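Two proteins follow. First one:
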Amino acid sequence: MVQRRESLKESPVKDAVVALPFLKWAGGKGRLLSQYAGLFPKDFESYFEPFLGGGAVYFHLSQNRKFEKAYISDYNPELTNCYKMVQKEPKKLLALLSKMRNDKHLFYKERARDVSQLTDLERAARLIFLNRTCFNGLYRVNSQGQFNVPFGKYKNPRIADAGNLMAASAVLQNASIHTGSFENLVSKAKSGDFVYFDPPYQPVSRTASFTSYTKNSFNLADQARLAQLARRLQERGVLVMVSNSDTDEIRDLYRDFDLTIVKAARAINCRADGRGVVNELVLRSYR
């Protein structure tokens, strides 16, 4: 017994918690990582991810690749504030989350709060709470930027996940977190850096669009602007990877990029026959 205890003390890595996304996010890449694994560059200098969302790719790469620095951002200020609070004040954030419960009345009370009157920590706790207890874990806002997803039906959602939140905080220590456009974040990317773009997807049909993560939609003109930027980064020697839906428009925008089809489970659709496994594209400036 004594020898066994000593052995365990000498191998703390076995008990380390792997950091996973602490937010549920529509279009999150957690289930696609096994298909993506062979598509990431083996070596790169710094990492850039402008459409952060739930951060599945960022957390995966941070724990499976060695790189100098991560630069991550999103256009959604509530989301980036949440990441900053997880990075800087995880224990205080957990203290606030531990006081919350899976209650319908509390949910709508929190949803109705004016975020401009809250501290950064309170805003972060509110976002995690709403995300964990709302319908399907969606994040959706209306044209005024107000969160408008209804209460979910989870029996026992994990609101204060101390182990994962602390692990995520540790990973985020190597990240510079920003709010703003995708152009701004990657302006300093240099040759040998890796940029991953995961924009709101081009709709595959007139009823398939889901781009309401912020009050500003992401249309085909924005997709074209992103593709032009990806091409300019390629010319500078930056390694670029883009994920998007499998449509003629996207194929045409990235016609000179390496194209890989991956199989993704679609869960968000108002029609049951619109759910299931669909093709998505991964476009790369490298092979």
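Second one, unrelated to the first:
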Amino acid sequence: MYARTEEFTETQQALAAMAKLLSHPARIAIIELLAQERSCISGNIASKLPLSRPTVSQHLQELKRAGAVIGEVESQRVCYCLNPVFFNRLQPLMRYLFAEVDKYAATADQSCCKPGDDNTC
């Protein structure tokens, strides 16, 4: 079965791609660390997380490939930092999604589909 992503809006596709990128807790931890420290060297990141250096490197490459992280080679080391352009694009997409959810939550029948019910609405 093939996904027909082209039938979804550009906003839906962009939000899904960013959500997929952020779907691993290691990548969230790396983003938090880079936000706190402003910039890091790959080895320093691995020493601050419960992950091996190769695993951190894989996640950094995934973040870099998606544009969330920028890396600069400094001799034998790579210095990584967050890409503000990526996060400036992510924030309005998340606000858009949660605005839709908030509209639903404000008007939803609170008795519909409660946990423990037979999930029929």
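SUMMARY FIELD: Residues 9-93 form a domain with the Arc Repressor Mutant, subunit A fold (CATH 1.10.10.10). The mean pLDDT is 83.
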